[in-house]
């Protein structure tokens, strides 16, 4: 049993879905769990639906039409007749989505978010499953929400591993192809849909691998594997042939976008290898994450995170920033759901670089002003270099406004206002 995960780029149109079939055939795997994400940029489109839903001037009907038309076009590229059951399934799924939006009474944005964006994965998996069946690949469509049970932390749910293990072991066959959704779960009290965080489909693949004792996991991407830098921002990149679990977790922690931070931990516990390969060249070796050498080849790795906020605090009476003060800061960071990316403190100051994922910055700043002198910079970029050399750091910082720098033996980080 192996686990394949296909992201949005691999199912962005009808030709891409057909290429997924080509990958399955070229790898000649018969016993698989296939995890699929929402198609293309549909999660973003569904976020627009939510935005319009909560806005007095929003046009929900038009936003939904965009999502529907996108999927309808893919169906017409896959099936010769609009009478195919896949078209009926699309209609029924959209009726379910519209019914939720019409009857929902909750004002909890995170709850509504999970109920709505989940339709991206549900529709995608149903289309791919139907096409597999159409061209003779027998498969079983599985609603992942019946398997992955979580708490009610909407948009970033925590997995109940005991319940999830039992359900996956019961519902998933070790033989044949099971096709399911990434990113989704359901909370164990009321069975409302939850999500595992953006890019959580990789995590879903790891959950299935752990619970099924899979041979390995392959994440299929539009890149040849894990690169030492994001080619969208860096002109010279190198393919990493092998990364140890520990190094991959470090890279994921600092924000390497190819691997989701939660994905690696369950795989490491059972020493299940993770492969990152190109769906454009399925027979190429890609990158292996597993036991062995830390990094092959040995090279510097560059990571950046954009649109962060740097908050700088100092005590109002110039007293030391000790454990009690810093404890209050972290309590409030947790309360307002800020993801901490970097911290630095001195005797009378404390700086923290955060990701304002839930748009709670103003509320946090108001709370911090009650006790501290507060300064902040929005839209900063955090650069991280693993296994750096001084010349690379100098070149990166040249002609840039460096607000903060932090250096350890293996890692240097720069907060830059660009």
From TrEMBL:
<feature type="binding site">
    <location>
        <position position="43"/>
    </location>
    <ligand>
        <name>substrate</name>
    </ligand>
</feature>
<dbReference type="Pfam" id="PF00696">
    <property type="entry name" value="AA_kinase"/>
</dbReference>
<comment type="pathway">
    <text>Amino-acid biosynthesis; L-methionine biosynthesis via de novo pathway; L-homoserine from L-aspartate: step 1/3.</text>
</comment>
<protein>
    <recommendedName>
        <fullName>Aspartokinase</fullName>
        <ecNumber>2.7.2.4</ecNumber>
    </recommendedName>
</protein>
<dbReference type="InterPro" id="IPR036393">
    <property type="entry name" value="AceGlu_kinase-like_sf"/>
</dbReference>
<feature type="binding site">
    <location>
        <begin position="5"/>
        <end position="8"/>
    </location>
    <ligand>
        <name>ATP</name>
    </ligand>
</feature>
<keyword id="KW-0028">Amino-acid biosynthesis</keyword>
<dbReference type="InterPro" id="IPR001048">
    <property type="entry name" value="Asp/Glu/Uridylate_kinase"/>
</dbReference>
<keyword id="KW-0547">Nucleotide-binding</keyword>
<dbReference type="GO" id="GO:0005829">
    <property type="term" value="C:cytosol"/>
</dbReference>
<dbReference type="GO" id="GO:0009089">
    <property type="term" value="P:lysine biosynthetic process via diaminopimelate"/>
</dbReference>
<feature type="binding site">
    <location>
        <position position="121"/>
    </location>
    <ligand>
        <name>substrate</name>
    </ligand>
</feature>
<feature type="binding site">
    <location>
        <position position="232"/>
    </location>
    <ligand>
        <name>ATP</name>
    </ligand>
</feature>
<comment type="similarity">
    <text>Belongs to the aspartokinase family.</text>
</comment>
<keyword id="KW-0808">Transferase</keyword>
<dbReference type="InterPro" id="IPR005260">
    <property type="entry name" value="Asp_kin_monofn"/>
</dbReference>
<feature type="domain" description="Aspartate/glutamate/uridylate kinase">
    <location>
        <begin position="3"/>
        <end position="278"/>
    </location>
</feature>
<dbReference type="InterPro" id="IPR042199">
    <property type="entry name" value="AsparK_Bifunc_asparK/hSer_DH"/>
</dbReference>
<dbReference type="GO" id="GO:0005524">
    <property type="term" value="F:ATP binding"/>
</dbReference>
<dbReference type="GO" id="GO:0009090">
    <property type="term" value="P:homoserine biosynthetic process"/>
</dbReference>
<dbReference type="GO" id="GO:0004072">
    <property type="term" value="F:aspartate kinase activity"/>
</dbReference>
<comment type="pathway">
    <text>Amino-acid biosynthesis; L-lysine biosynthesis via DAP pathway; (S)-tetrahydrodipicolinate from L-aspartate: step 1/4.</text>
</comment>
<dbReference type="InterPro" id="IPR001341">
    <property type="entry name" value="Asp_kinase"/>
</dbReference>
<keyword id="KW-0067">ATP-binding</keyword>
<keyword id="KW-0418">Kinase</keyword>
<dbReference type="InterPro" id="IPR045865">
    <property type="entry name" value="ACT-like_dom_sf"/>
</dbReference>
<dbReference type="GO" id="GO:0009088">
    <property type="term" value="P:threonine biosynthetic process"/>
</dbReference>
């Amino acid at each position: 049993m192996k686990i394949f995960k296909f992201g949005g780029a691999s199912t962005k149109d009808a030709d891409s879905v057909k290429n997924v079939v080509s990958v399955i055939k070229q790898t000649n795997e018969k016993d698989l769990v296939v995890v699929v994400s929402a198609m293309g940029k549909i999660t973003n489109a569904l976020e627009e639906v939510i935005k319009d839903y909560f806005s007095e001037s929003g046009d929900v009907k038009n936003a939904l039409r965009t999502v529907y038309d996108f999927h309808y076009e893919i169906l017409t590229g896959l099936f010769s007749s609009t009478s195919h059951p896949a078209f009926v399934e699309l209609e029924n799924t959209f009726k379910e989505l519209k019914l939720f939006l019409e009857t929902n009474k909750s004002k909890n944005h995170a709850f509504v978010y999970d109920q709505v964006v989940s339709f991206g994965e549900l529709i995608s998996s149903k289309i791919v499953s139907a096409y597999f069946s159409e061209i003779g690949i027998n498969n079983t469509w599985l609603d992942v929400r019946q398997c992955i049970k979580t708490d009610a932390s909407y948009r970033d749910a925590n997995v109940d591993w005991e319940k999830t293990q039992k359900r996956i072991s019961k519902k998933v066959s070790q033989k044949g192809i099971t096709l399911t959704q990434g990113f989704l779960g359901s909370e164990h009290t009321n069975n409302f849909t939850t999500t595992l965080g953006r890019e959580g489909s990789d995590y879903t693949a790891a959950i299935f691998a752990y619970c099924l004792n899979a041979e390995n996991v392959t994440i299929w991407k539009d890149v040849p594997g894990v690169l030492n830098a994001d080619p969208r921002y860096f002109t010279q990149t190198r393919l990493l042939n092998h990364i140890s679990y520990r190094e991959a977790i470090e890279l994921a922690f600092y924000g390497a976008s190819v691997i989701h931070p939660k994905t690696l931990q369950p795989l490491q516990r059972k020493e299940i290898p993770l492969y990152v390969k190109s769906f454009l060249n399925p027979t190429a070796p890609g990158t292996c994450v597993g036991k062995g050498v830390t990094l092959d080849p040995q090279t510097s790795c560059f990571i950046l995170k954009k649109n962060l906020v740097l908050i700088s605090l100092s005590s109002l009476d110039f007293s030391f920033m000790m454990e009690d003060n810093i404890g209050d800061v972290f309590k409030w960071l947790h309360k307002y759901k800020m993801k901490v990316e970097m911290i630095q403190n001195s005797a009378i100051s404390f700086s923290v670089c955060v990701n304002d994922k839930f748009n709670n910055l103003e509320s946090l700043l108001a709370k911090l002003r009650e006790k501290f002198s507060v300064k902040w910079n929005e839209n900063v970029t955090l650069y991280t270099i693993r296994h750096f050399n001084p010349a690379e750091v100098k070149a990166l910082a040249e002609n840039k406004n460096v607000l903060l720098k932090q250096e350890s033996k293996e890692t240097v980080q720069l907060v830059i206002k660009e």
